[in-house]
User: What shape does this take?
Amino acid sequence: MDLLSDYECAHLYSAVSDIVTGERFWEGDSGLFYHEFIKLRHFRVAANAPTAPASGHDSFVPMSVTKSYHGSPRITLPPPQPLLAPLGPTLTNRRTRRDYRDTRLDLQQLSTLLGLACGVSATVAAYGFDCLPLRTFPSHGGLQSPEVYLGVRAVDGLTPGVYHYDPRGHGLDLIMDGDPSEQLSALAFGEEYVRLAQVVLLISGVYDRLRWKYGERSYRFLCTDVGFVGQNVCLVSEGLGLGACPVSGFAQGTAEQLIGIDGRSELAMLMLTVGVVDSATATVS
Assistant: This one.
């Protein structure tokens, strides 16, 4: 008991008292059990935290904070354009939009969406390195756990397929040829608007980017980081006059197979549809 603070002793006493009275909290709601288990009571970097090199130019912290597919066909995107929509109306007008026109998305719009929602905005010296990339979304420890994949159905200048967004090169790496819209709709249990969207984003979280520093709290931080990206996508889409719809009800295991991740070190977390809005029939929520 001498190893624990007064606060920790009080928490332990409360937990033991509940168990004595018959409460088996570990057999109940696993989400609440996890939340209680990882509450921050003192800060301790995980015991297996590696030592970073003294200096360098890569983004090792201790692993790259961005992912690339060497050898895959690469499409370099045009530079993102400034977003001219004012912030206030963009925030108040933002809605979930699921009605999309049967047309093609402009490649410049997609480039601006990706660059402003999840691109690299600057670099900074951190973790013993000279040029750690900074992104347009906040992330825990600056470790940038989210990765962005795209299922492309109808975009000018892009072959239909599944792509990975490389923020450092502002480009798309082709993972799989072919129109993925039917597979993506099936992932979302047959939702028609998923099939009709010009682009479907799948946002994953790389758990190991956080785990070396934050231990068991990493999953909680992973969810928050992905939420930051999702909100950026919604707001930038609104500012560009596009429709976006976040989708959390999808088959994560099958999605992980589609984009080629293992579901342990990297997990599928969020789907978002993006499309050209059909204003005549649009419904919002």
